[in-house]
Amino acid sequence: MGKMFKKDRNVLDKKKANRYQELMSHLEKVQKNLERDYQNIQFIEDRNLVDYYTYRIKAEEARYDYLLQEAKKVETGIYL
What is the pLDDT of residues 6-30, one digit of tens each? Predict the structure, then answer.
């Protein structure tokens, strides 16, 4: 029975590592999107686009916060 438990634990550890890596990848993409949007909003000439980029930035910040919370849960073992 000890071997079976060890095997199950290895599977869980791999799932946890995969989930964490997936979240880190998404966080990196969100950071790049935010950098791009912050850069773009500085050079807007059309006032109508200010609302558009403000919305995008707020949405990406919310997404970043969510992904960060999920990564912390995985890291501490609260979530799988």
Answer: 556 676 688 889 999 999 999 999 9
CB atoms within 10 A of CB 30: 20
Q: At what angle do helices 2-42 and 48-76 cross, to 10 degrees?
A: 160
Q: State the burial class of residue 74 (Cβ atoms within 10 Å of its Cβ: 0-12, 13-18, 19+).
A: buried
First CA to last CA distance, the chain: 23
Vertex 10, ends 4 and 15: CA angle to 5°?
130
Q: Model pTM?
A: 0.78
Q: Are 50 and 40 in contact (CB under 8 A)?
A: no
CA–CA distance, 21 with 26 (Å, rounded to integer)? 9
What tokens appear for 54 in the block?
A: 């403000």
